[in-house]
Amino acid sequence: MDVFGALANPVRRELLQALRDGPLPAGELAGRFALSRPAVSEHLAVLRQARLVVEEPRGRHRYYHLAADPLAEVSDWLHPFERYWRGRLTALRDFVEGEEDL
Fold first, then answer.
1. Alpha-carbon distance 30 to 37, whole Å?
2. Can you tell me which residues the record assigns to a coiled coil (predicted)?
3. Which fold would CATH assign to domain 1-67?
4. Is 37's pLDDT higher than 70?
5. Is 42 exposed, middle or buried (0-12, 13-18, 19+ CB in 10 A)?
6. Which of 35, 72, 10 is nearest to 26 (CA)?
7. pLDDT tens-digit profile of 5-16?
8. What is the phi-psi region of residue 82: left when phi exceeds 0, alpha when psi lies from -120 to 50, beta otherwise?
């Protein structure tokens, strides 16, 4: 699966957010969700295949690390759209602020 396909799922996005502050063991990651451990494990496998996380065995535990390099691909793809959204949000702000003056 590619990076964009992996990021399409909200559970996988939450897993990546959980790893922003550093590596976590699989059990702790699974404990953050109302899903079974095998379900979380499947999501982690998709993230591994997309190279968004790296698995590190430590004794009986498996720690997961965020691999940020593939996210640069997403950033590069999104960059041209940033100007569009910035303009739209500015227009929305101007409209809302104009309504407050009425």
1. 6
2. none
3. Arc Repressor Mutant, subunit A (1.10.10)
4. yes
5. middle
6. 35
7. 899 999 999 999
8. alpha
Region 43-61: mean pLDDT is 94
Q: Which residue has the tokens 């502050």?
A: 21
Sheet holding 61-66, edge to edge: 24-25, 61-66, 53-58
CA angle (86 as vertex; 92, 5 as ends), nearest 5: 115
Tens digit of pLDDT for each residue in 69-89?
A: 888 888 888 888 887 788 888
Please provide the average confidence, as pLDDT, over all residues in the chain: 88
Measure Cα distances from 76 to 68, 71, 80 in Å: 13, 9, 8
